[in-house]
Amino acid sequence: MDYLVKDEKLELKYESGKGAWTYHIQIPNTKHIAGKWGDLKVSGYIDEYKLETKNLFTITGQDKLISINQEIRSAINKTGGDTVTVTLYLLNIKEQITEEQVLDTFKEADVLKSFEKMPEEERHEILKKILSQRSEEKQVKMIINHIDKLTK
Questions:
Q1: Which of 60, 81, 100, 107 lies in disulfide reach of 112, CB 3.0 to 4.6 Å?
Q2: Under a CB-based contact definition with an 8 Å cutoff, are residues 143 and 134 in contact?
Q3: CATH 2.40.30.100 boundaries in the chain
């Protein structure tokens, strides 16, 4: 299991006027996880309340949030400002493609030798561009584009 937090004491926050996010918990050390709404789903526990599939909310450059609705707050008998014990793990995350996977793909496409003949700086730039894409779909498109160029 890929835990985001395990038995961690966190604050159940209250911020008026945020709709479904009025009551929420900010999950520490999660701002580096790429994904848009619906990509990042978690399960786990808030105190003794079992969470099934729940989406995380992403705010660019900030840790992810999980909303805590009235049903959960009533079950755990907590409100804004209270401390809760949180265990959350990712159910699915759209993984980024690694450099090793790119090179393996080039090898399978029989273009790795052509790639390796390129100047080191150019190879580095190609890998950097592929790996910096925010979605696997964009990475795959760039890999295919480079395979086409390398076969010529």
A1: 107
A2: no
A3: 3-92
Using CA atoms, how far apart are residues 33 and 112, in angstroms rounded to an integer? 30
Judge contact between 113 and 64, C-beta under 8 A.
no
Residue 74 has which token pair? 């009533």
**Backbone φ, ψ for residue 146 (5° rounding):** -70, -35
Distance CA 78, CA 12 (A): 8
Alpha carbon dihedral 22, 27, 32, 35, in 10-degree steps, equals -50
* pTM (2 d.p.): 0.59
Token pair 């299991």 is at which residue?
A: 1
Chain segment 30-45, per-residue pLDDT in tens: 888 877 666 788 899 9
- Secondary-structure class of domain 3-92 per CATH: mainly beta
Phi-psi region of 22 (alpha: psi -120 to 50; beta: other; left: phi over 0): alpha
DSSP assignment of 141-152 equals HHHHHHHHHHH-
